[in-house]
Design brief:
The protein is of the alpha/beta class and 251 residues long. It has helices at residues 17-33, 49-55, 82-88, 98-103, 108-120, 133-137, 141-152, 180-198, 200-205, 219-223, 240-248, and strands spanning 6-10, 39-43, 61-65, 92-95, 124-129, 162-166, 207-211, 230-233. It has eleven helices and eight strands. It has an eight-stranded parallel barrel, surrounded by seven helices. Bound molecules: phosphoenolpyruvate.
């Protein structure tokens, strides 16, 4: 079993062309110069994908979208299909981020449908799960995350085409984080659910990232945990120094 650490940046709805391409160029340059033993991924907004792809050329930094529709094409104003992401050079797509589950009422069933479409287009997915503060306070964290994993991953998810990101909703962008023990407990529980649904081999090989206020000052603690295989980083991925310092703390 070997799970390579993944350092993934979710840029959300940030950066205009110059800022985004400069950020991508800085990351690419540094990744080329230094020998990090991890995978890198950046997920800019749709408007930046083309230029960021160019800025990353020749580096080992992968490109991802932040969402996709489940249909290949058609009458879906404002949406983007998995095929379109693949066509522009994406390798990954983030699905089921809590901001989409909240802002766009995305359900786990919809996330699974999108994931299936993403695999059919040759994309890999990062499927996000996580509890709200209320659910945590009610002691439902593991139940909620387990249910989301069971229902958001479609039957054809594999360790090669899927990464899970555990992101407590209350930790995203707030500076608050769970304890390392809490994170390890949830990741171990998620791995158990994956084992029940897909078998032990898949569970042992599937990467599970932690996301929620990861920064250079706390990354080592989280990324050294046995069931944590990398980070999905929001705010700190918008500064190349911070994004790379997080990688440096473990890779
Ligand atoms: C995220 O958006 O996935 C995230 C984890 O954000 P932040 O790192 O800013 O908490």
């Amino acid at each position: 079993m070997s799970r390579k650490i993944m350092i993934a940046g979710n840029w959300k709805m940030n950066c205009l062309q110059k800022e985004g391409t400069d950020l991508a160029k800085n990351i690419a340059l540094n990744v080329k110069k230094n020998k990090y033993n991890c995978d890198f991924l950046v997920c800019p907004p749709f408007t930046l994908l083309s230029n960021v792809k160019k800025a990353l050329r020749g580096s080992k930094v992968s490109l991802g979208g932040q969402n996709a529709h489940f249909a290949e094409k058609g009458a879906h104003t404002g949406d983007v299909s998995p095929q379109m992401l693949k066509d522009i050079g994406c390798e990954y797509v983030i699905l089921g981020h809590s901001e989409r589950r909240t802002d766009h009422k995305e359900t786990s069933a919809l996330v699974a449908k999108k994931a299936e479409a993403a695999y059919n287009s040759g994309l890999k997915t990062i499927i996000c799960v996580g509890e709200t503060l209320e659910q945590r306070e009610q002691g439902k964290t593991i139940d909620i995350c387990s249910k989301q994993v069971k229902t958001s991953l479609p039957k054809n998810a594999t360790a090669a085409n899927t990464i899970i990101a555990y992101e407590p909703v209350w930790a995203i962008g707030t500076g608050k984080t769970p304890t390392a023990k809490d994170v390890e407990d949830v990741h171990a529980a998620i791995r158990q659910v994956v084992a029940q649904k897909f078998g032990t081999k898949t569970a042992n090989n599937m990467r599970i990232l932690y996301g929620g206020s990861v920064k250079p000052s706390n990354s080592k603690e989280f990324l050294s945990l046995p069931d944590v295989d990398g980070a999905l980083i929001g705010g700190a991925s918008l500064k190349s120094e911070d994004f790379l310092a997080i990688a440096k703390s473990v890779c």
